[in-house]
Amino acid sequence: MKQKPQETGFKKEIGLFGGMSVICGIMIGSGIFYLGSYVLQRSGYSLGLALICWLVGGLVSLLGGLCFAELGASDPKAGGQLVYLSKAYHPVLGFMYGFTQWILASSGSIAAIAVAIPTALVDFIPGLTQLHIKLIAIALIVLLTLFNLRGVKGASNLQTVFMVAKLLPIFIIMIGALALGNHSPDLTPVPAAAADGSPVTAGSLFGMIAFATVASLWAYEGWTNLNAVAEEIKNVKRNLPLAIILGIGGVAIFYALFNYSLLRVIPLDEAKSMIESGSLYLGTTVAERLFGVAGKVIVLIGMLLAMFNCLNGMVLAFSRIYYAMSAEKIFFKKLGTLNRNGVPAASLFSQMIISIILVCLRNLDQLTSLVVFCGMLFNCLAVTAVFVYRRKYPDLERPYKVWLYPVSVVITVILFVGLMVNNLLEDPVTALTGLIVPVVGIFFYIYFRKKYGEEEKEDA
Questions:
Q1: Transmembrane residues, as ranges (predicted)?
Q2: How far, in Å, CA of 294 to CA of 314, rounded?
Q3: Exposed, middle or buried by CB within 10 Å (0-12, 13-18, 19+), for 257?
């Protein structure tokens, strides 16, 4: 008789603050220094409207997070979203999600951040070539993979340390701008003109808010990832929902306050000229004006710490998805085992190899952009899973329930559908091409189901 797969043996080492560090660590990256320019531009250079869009983006993310909080607290399994899609709908849908993450989305995100870290050093280290950048990126992926193999406690502690460390330089810039800035920006949420220069109407104003909110959502990306490590969270029924609510809510307030502080130093007209000329890093300019040459160093340190923190969080969280696929008997059996430290070593190694391969590819941005649409589709289905779970599993313990159910869930689904329609209209070819990866996953699912089915017959 063949040996049965190893039983789950995760160690519960992630506390409340550790959970917040995972979700906030992945959300707050280098984008905080430049994404505000896109939101301001799309808001018709109205700071008041831009701040509303930042808060609306936070609200959309929080509504989605509340749905994940209910699912995670009632069904705290490793893999998070994959588990919800499999149990609410069908295992093939969960596999399509996990396969896309493994081949492209999650591994591609790890590769992109790993490349971005040495790229930020180009202006400071003369002679840093593309080969050097790729080698450093590969070294970072290998280093963090090996560190994560030592156990989730060390990885969680590292996440917490770098979460605090990266906020220090950002807070220095924000507090300095609030205290030393001598401009009082107009917060009236009315833009002078639409993006195309035409007068603002009620319809164009609504479209402007939606367009700018989409830009802000880029900065909130990552709020779904804490659920992937649910089995490793202490007192998960309390700490997972609390970490999601405090994490997303705190980040929303932080983003709004940071972007307001920048306009305390840079006049709005000057900010507009900078953005129109392609100078998007308003945070860097503010730091240099406040602290001179040291300001540029402060920004660099903040960016490097933020990206490293984000990279470690992704290496930690994403590997649990592939473990869950194997545990569901729809993926490579080896990926469903844990090492003596209670971490999915084989999943970490497979993730590392694919990420390194993607680092070596040239068009990484084009590859990752292909999965944006299906990523939103999977998120929307996971949110809708709250309805399905309540119908299919009425006796399931729910220590946390979504606020204002079912209205809040319906609103969240509508918002996600709106974003998908917007993405489909803006770039239909890329959106539909991105569906190729999960569709290919169906054939792999059929293969693995057949393989495991034959093995179970032999064991019987």
A1: 14-35, 47-71, 92-119, 131-149, 161-180, 200-220, 240-258, 297-323, 343-364, 370-390, 402-422, 428-448
A2: 30
A3: middle
Q: What angle do CA 139, 353, 337 make, to 5 degrees?
A: 115
pTM for the whole structure = 0.86
List C-alpha distances in Å: 50 to 250, 251, 255, 401: 18, 16, 11, 31
CA distances to 162, 170, 285 from 295, rounded to whole Å, are 20, 11, 8
- Selection from 172, 179, 181, 154 nearest residue 301 by Cα: 172
DSSP codes, 2-70: PPPPPPP-----B-HHHHHHHHHHHHSSGGGGTHHHHHHHHTTT-HHHHHHHHHHHHHHHHHHHHHHHH
Which token pair is 374? Answer: 């299906």
For every one of its 460 residues, what pLDDT tens digit does the chain have, with 9 covering 90 and above? 344 444 458 889 999 999 999 999 988 887 788 888 889 988 888 999 999 999 998 998 999 999 999 999 999 999 999 999 999 999 999 999 999 999 888 898 899 889 989 988 887 888 888 899 999 999 999 999 999 999 999 999 999 999 999 999 999 999 999 999 888 888 887 776 554 556 666 667 777 887 788 778 878 888 888 999 999 999 999 999 999 999 999 999 999 999 999 999 999 999 999 999 888 888 889 999 999 989 989 989 998 999 999 999 999 999 999 999 998 888 999 999 999 999 999 999 999 999 999 998 855 555 656 677 788 889 899 999 999 999 999 999 999 999 889 998 998 898 888 878 877 877 788 778 878 889 999 999 999 998 887 676 666 5
Crossing angle between the packed helical segments 407-426 and 372-392, to the nearest 10 degrees: 160
Q: Which residue has the tokens 């507090």?
A: 175
Query: What angle, rounded to 10 degrees, do the helices at 282-291 and 236-262 form?
Result: 70
The pair of three-digit structure tokens given for residue 258, joined into one six-digit string: 């940071």
Question: CA–CA distance from 307 to each of 55, 137, 184, 304, 328 (Å)?
Answer: 23, 12, 32, 5, 32
148's tokens: 């994560």
If one counts every other C-beta atom within 10 angstroms of the C-beta of residue 367, the result is 20
Q: Which of 268, 263, 269, 307 is nearest to 289 (CA)?
A: 263
Q: Compute the C-alpha angle 402/404/410, nearest 5°.
A: 85
- In Å, what is the CA distance from 102 to each residue of 97, 108, 222, 260, 374? 9, 9, 16, 38, 14
